């Protein structure tokens, strides 16, 4: 029952500390039928083992986690971890605003030695990102496309328009992957059909 605590005592030298990072903690609180959520019995194990590590390691284990605001009230579903909430230091992170995202894009490009073909491109990227559902992950695909299609050190507005903006870059990537399944070494094995079925189910 105390396997994690015993392991930590064996692995950590005197004075050494361990930082655990758990991203998207809401997946431990979501219903089992939600994509990415833990199965019901895994909730219990996750709760007990993580709380054990935090509470029984001589104060040498720290947890940093992110959780969506609408799931904070559901923390009571994990009774062992919930009992440790008085030790939590919470730092709310507010949604990024357009001017801050634009500034971040401009700063990152400058530090990388890149230029924008037109001055309004980073502004358009910021606007399109914040207008789209789940826009920040899509922005990553758009920036990768701009990098791949750059003209030397210049990020091209033309390339952004051709791909269809922030949302279009992901569609282009998906089409390219499906095309590889159609003509690659796995052709004839039904992989493309299974991939298309999986993608539809994800949507």
Spans of at least 5 consecutive residues whose pLDDT stays below 50 are none
Sheet with the most strands: spatial strand order: 1-2
Strand content: 5-15%
Main sheet record: 2 strands, parallel
Structural class: mainly alpha
Number of helices: 9
> What is the helical fraction, as a range of percent?
40-55%
Rg calculated over all Cα atoms: 23 Å
Mean pLDDT: 80
- What is the overall silhouette? elongated
Detailed description of the structure:
- With 203 residues, the protein is mainly alpha-helical.
- Helix content is 52%, strand content 7%.
- It contains 9 helices and 4 strands; from the N terminus they run H-E-H-E-H-H-E-H-H-E-H-H-H.
- The protein has a two-stranded parallel sheet.
- Strand 1, helix 2 (40-55) and strand 2 form a beta-alpha-beta unit.
- The longest helix is centred in the C-terminal third of the chain and has 19 residues, at 165-183.
- The chain is elongated, with a radius of gyration of 23 Å.
- The protein starts with a helix and ends with a helix.
- The mean pLDDT is 80.
């Amino acid at each position: 029952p105390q396997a994690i605590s015993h392991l930590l005592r064996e692995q950590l030298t005197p004075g050494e500390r361990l930082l655990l990072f758990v991203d998207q903690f809401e997946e431990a609180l979501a219903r089992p039928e939600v994509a990415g959520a833990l199965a019901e019995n895994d909730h219990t194990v996750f709760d007990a083992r993580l709380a054990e590590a935090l509470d029984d390691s001589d104060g040498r284990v720290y947890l940093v986690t992110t959780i969506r605001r609408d799931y904070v009230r559901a923390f009571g579903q994990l009774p062992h971890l919930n009992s440790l909430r008085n030790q939590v230091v919470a730092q709310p992170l507010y949604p990024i605003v357009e001017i801050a995202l634009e500034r971040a894009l401009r700063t990152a490009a400058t530090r990388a030695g890149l230029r924008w073909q037109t001055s309004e491109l980073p502004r358009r990227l910021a606007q399109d990102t914040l207008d789209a559902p789940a826009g920040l992950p899509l922005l990553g695909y758009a920036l990768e496309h701009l990098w791949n299609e750059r003209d030397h050190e210049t990020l091209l507005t033309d390339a952004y328009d051709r791909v269809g903006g922030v949302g279009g870059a992901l569609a282009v990537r998906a089409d390219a992957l499906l095309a590889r399944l159609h003509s690659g070494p796995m052709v004839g094995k039904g992989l493309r059909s299974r991939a298309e079925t999986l993608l539809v189910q994800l949507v």
